[in-house]
Design a protein that fits this description.
This protein is α/β, with parallel strands linked by helices. The protein contains 24 helices and 24 strands.
């Protein structure tokens, strides 16, 4: 790799003025990007990583400005560059892939026009030539049938396809530097792996340099050459990726790595989580910004800002008391769960459940196709699979928010339908994926928590308020939160409120739909510990829906793997994770980004349309083991050892699944 410097950032500081408040999201940051390399920037939300990328692009929000330092690109200083000249750089020489493709793409314009626009603006190409270039780029990023997609609108594409369009837009002018800001946060593991491999391949083929902004340390371990860890707007640690992971020095980096749930995590122990919250960036920081959350902090840490100390190998850290040795995972143990009665009747039974949605004419979207499983009292059943496999549709039917086309959900021997309102509201509750959208922004938290009690006619106002205080205490929030609005809370706090609201009526069954998918790793650990503890203490039966296999491994007693509306494998978590029998399950596990894993056996290709699923085995179009039998005959669910079952004509042997 050439060591020619493409981008040099020295002592960069940014402030944003909002009325009387001044936020300092970036302070004295120093970074270098070499030709052809990937620099990872990692940290929690609010650490300054995205704002650093926006400063490079000259796209700071209203009230934002660079207050100090330098951004040197090739032979040009970008700080203070006139707006007209900056527009010639932005999107042409330096481009950005934004986090949310659905909001970054214009919903009123066709895909082809949006990808072609940078070529027309920067290169002066004709409409026809720009359209041809757009088709070429869509093919380069692996979008199926690119010529047909040119006239599609963003809403007609899947999440993975939209992300490919975003990449095509960013690369259409072949920039020297591309900044990828959380490019895979909302995507499931297989699409995430495809997008990251695509970026690696394009970087190599086009000779680009890349800044990869993420909060996922596993992504950094696999895809970055060097890494910078940010906290409180400052650079905490930086260096070659292998050196940083092998010899982590800063206490914050140490804590981030310790917070990551793994597939081998002991379910009887709590996940490590970083106590407290990130610093308030409207207040000037006297010492180390991590001091308030650091177990090794001293008076020096609280009063003196540690300098960035650089070692001979380029590994640098800003910590007065650097860590040494391997990451320590200190744990507290959960209480021992009550023993389950073997012959106890199932709390929840799902019997041959089908849900189809009209798709115009006689066509239907086959979201859920004949799914059956049981959940015992006090048991947690995990449901995993890619986006679009029918997990959320199934979850909505479990709590009677949606009516099945056929089949039945049975709770304690009684069928559950949208008509059984009192049963649905008191005994079956749902924790929604997007806590920001599921909490009414016009209502204070106290009103939100009292509302389900008022609807059910439980208690008077004083009793409901007392119950709201109890719920906040259960989820680890202070009573002062009752008078706040949702927008005044962090993402982790909102997710805790969502859990508290779901528990308000003392439900018997909790359905949690992607409960931690949008949270930072440290906040995720806090919420997962809370959910696990409440499951044990209350004896809740739960269905946890997630595309994060490590989350399901930690929370669930048993797991079901869904593909295109069908269950393809079920069993205890030890059985399924220890010896995956279905090629799809093995591919999902192989796609999890971790240091030292290659992911060669992961699932490849696009999910087929649920309007017209493949004949026979629905996974056969993406399966390396598929035969003519798979195309002709749908595989039945067959028992293996113990409770393990698989629907596959050619199930993997134990040694294959562990390879």
């Amino acid at each position: 790799m050439s060591t020619d410097r493409v981008l040099t950032i020295r002592d960069l500081s940014v402030e944003i003025r909002r009325g009387d408040r001044v936020v300092r999201p970036v302070s004295d940051v120093n970074l270098v990007l070499n030709r052809g390399e990937t620099l990872g920037i990692v940290g929690e939300t609010g650490s300054g990583k995205s704002m650093t990328g926006l400063a490079i692009m000259g796209m700071l929000p209203p009230g934002g400005r660079v207050t100090g330092g330098s951004i040197h690109f090739r032979d040009r200083e970008l700080v203070g560059l006139p707006a007209a000249q900056y527009r010639g750089v932005r999107g042409n020489e330096i481009a950005m892939i934004f986090q949310d493709s659905m909001t970054a793409l214009n919903p009123t314009r066709r895909i082809g026009d949006q990808v072609a626009e940078p070529v027309r603006l920067h290169r002066g190409e004709s409409r026809r030539a720009a359209r041809a270039r757009a088709e070429e780029m869509l093919a380069l990023v692996g979008l199926p049938r690119p010529a047909e997609r040119l006239d599609d609108y963003p809403h007609q594409l899947s999440g993975g396809m939209r992300q490919r369009v975003m990449i095509a837009m960013a690369l259409v002018c072949e920039p020297s530097v591309v900044i990828a800001d959380e490019p895979t946060t909302a995507l499931d593991v297989t699409i995430q792996a495809e997008i990251l491999e695509l970026l690696d391949d394009l970087r190599s083929r086009l000779g680009m340099s890349m800044i990869l902004v993420t909060h996922d340390m596993g992504v950094i371990a696999r895809h970055a050459d060097r890494v910078g860890v940010m906290y409180g707007g400052r650079l905490a640690e930086t260096g070659p990726t292998a050196a940083l992971f092998d010899r982590t020095r800063h206490r914050y980096t140490h804590a981030l790595l310790a917070s990551i749930p793994s597939l081998t995590q002991d379910r009887g122990e709590e996940l490590f989580s970083i106590p407290g919250a990130p610093p308030d960036l409207t207040v000037a920081q006297a010492g180390c910004p991590f001091a308030a959350r650091c177990e090794a902090a001293t008076e020096q840490c609280r009063t003196e800002q540690p300098p960035l100390t650089v070692a001979e190998d380029g590994h640098a850290h800003a910590c007065w008391h650097p860590a040494s040795g391997p990451t320590v995972r200190a744990r507290s143990s959960f209480p021992v769960p009550a023993a389950k009665t073997e012959d106890a009747a199932p709390r929840l039974r799902v019997v041959d459940l089908v849900r189809e949605y009209p798709a115009g004419g006689r066509r239907t979207v086959k979201a859920v196709s004949g799914v059956s499983f049981e959940v015992a009292p006090g048991e947690t059943f995990g449901l995993v699979g890619e986006s679009g496999c029918g997990k959320s549709s199934l979850g909505r039917m479990l709590v009677a928010l949606d009516r099945p086309t056929s089949g039945q959900v049975v709770f304690d021997g009684e069928p559950v339908t949208p008509g059984t309102k009192r049963l649905r509201r008191t005994d079956l509750q749902m924790m929604f994926q997007d806590s920001n959208a599921s909490l009414d922004p016009r209502m204070r938290i106290g009103t939100i928590l009292r509302e389900p009690l008022a609807i059910q006619g439980i208690g008077n106002r004083a009793q409901r308020t007392e119950r709201a205080h109890e719920l906040l205490a259960d989820v680890g929030l202070p009573a002062a939160v009752l008078d706040r609005y949702p927008y005044e809370l962090s993402g982790g706090q909102r997710q805790r409120v969502g859990l508290a609201r779901a528990l308000a009526l003392n439900p018997t069954v909790l359905v949690a739909d992607e409960p931690v998918s949008a949270l930072d790793v440290s906040i995720r650990s806090q919420v997962l510990n809370l959910m696990r503890r409440l499951q044990i203490e209350r004896g809740l039966s739960s269905v946890v829906i997630s595309h994060d296999l490590a989350v399901v491994r930690y929370l669930a007693d048993r797991v079901g793997v869904m593909y295109l509306g069908k269950l393809v494998e079920t069993g205890s978590t030890d059985e399924v994770y220890g010896a995956a029998a279905h090629p799809y399950t093995a591919g999902l596990l192989a796609a999890i980004p971790q240091a030292g894993t290659a992911g060669a056996a992961r699932v490849r290709g696009e999910l087929p349309s649920p309007i017209d699923p493949p004949s026979g085995c629905r996974f056969r179009t993406r399966c390396a083991l598929a035969t003519e039998l798979c195309a002709q005959v749908e595989p039945p669910m067959k028992p293996l050892a113990g409770t393990h079952q698989v629907a596959c004509h050619h199930p993997l042997r134990r040694e294959d699944s562990l390879a």
